[in-house]
């Protein structure tokens, strides 16, 4: 076929297709219109006939710039025309017009006068018709070029659209990767799907590990708003559309003219699309879309982008899940460490309390509550070294209860204990608790160790002790100097020097105590220090 119908249509659309053929026909047909009833030029194209120009006695010349099918032309002898084309007949009123060796036209002249200049008109027609056909070919290729250009532009626009979608997806992927939680990731994905990727409605579903149930995250309402659908859960439907999406990687399953559902209720008809989220070879969920709102078809590029989006989102879900697991583990660990630390601190405190209690018990005399002999010895070592270093004085007052054996003998050992406790309590009030130490040295002997006192202060303190005990008025059975319990004290105040053993201070005070006993008891004696 020389010209396709569409091409003929294209030529029809161009009224200036070939002015030379039209002019020739106009001129020559008008010259002979009186010599015939009808003259017409037909175009032969692939065995079909089209009317190009016609003139009758009844009507003016018409050039069909949009070639007409001859079927409607009742005055054209169609049967004769086809007979000539097929070479079945040679007729005087129908002349074939050859271009090369092909019939490209017919000149039909009805009821021609005997002097009709058939040959004159016929002769130039092959050239004009050839030009006309060439012109049609040019028009044809122009149309093809235009069509190709149109297709190219369309492709360019699609490519531009695709590259914009890809840029959008790239940007979206970056934004998704910066989100803090899985919930934000689900929400952002759906929001971006409908606002930036041109999807009417999108929802994101996550499956359980058994791949039996799926759970909603975020979806889209019937009016196109993002909605929290975390309340939704259902069994995974065993239908081909879903199973196809869940078993084919990087694949968008589309169901055309399908029911569009919202919360498992049918709300319309359109396409449903579904692309699975994969982690390795396992599906972890899917993204579902439909065209409920705008009813637009799903573009090829949108399909590509949805597949890419699903791949990115799946990766980010897995990463975020891992991150959240690590955060949870760290929280659990921190909690356990805090609990353990608190337990340890408690245990440490209990141990410390026990140690302190033990130290107190081991350093204390159980009867009087005073420091015991061991504590006194340690304290003496410390104070002695300190005084030696500071070249300061150290005083020791050694006290012994007078005639205590008789007291015990008379009142019993238990009463003796009570008496000792009373004496210890009273003596405690004589010392400066911050600096001095009072200790039970043994039996009914009590010592006071006082740093940085003068001899006079030491004497005054010894005297104060004696008087305070006397003032207790604890009756004593022995008729002696007094009829009440008294004490005797020997004291010493010295500044330690290198080479002097600290036991010396005890010995010296003890000697003074002995002196106090010898000189009548209930008195205090200062030790005489001899080198
Ligand atoms: N109740 C009681 N008596 C004690 C305790 N420790 C020592 N004594 C008694 O204290 C008495 C000390 O007696 P002595 O050393 O003879 O001295 P004294 O009778 O006090 O006579 P002078 O020291 O010379 O005045 C002894 O009978 C001891 O049994 C004690 O913890 N409780």
Automatic annotation (TrEMBL):
It comes from the Bacteria. Its EC number is 2.7.7.65. Keywords: Coiled coil. SMART domains: GGDEF. The keyword Coiled coil applies. It catalyses: 2 GTP = 3',3'-c-di-GMP + 2 diphosphate. PANTHER family: DIGUANYLATE CYCLASE DGCM-RELATED, REGULATORY COMPONENTS OF SENSORY TRANSDUCTION SYSTEM. This is diguanylate cyclase. The lineage of its organism: Bacteria, Pseudomonadati, Pseudomonadota, Gammaproteobacteria, Alteromonadales.
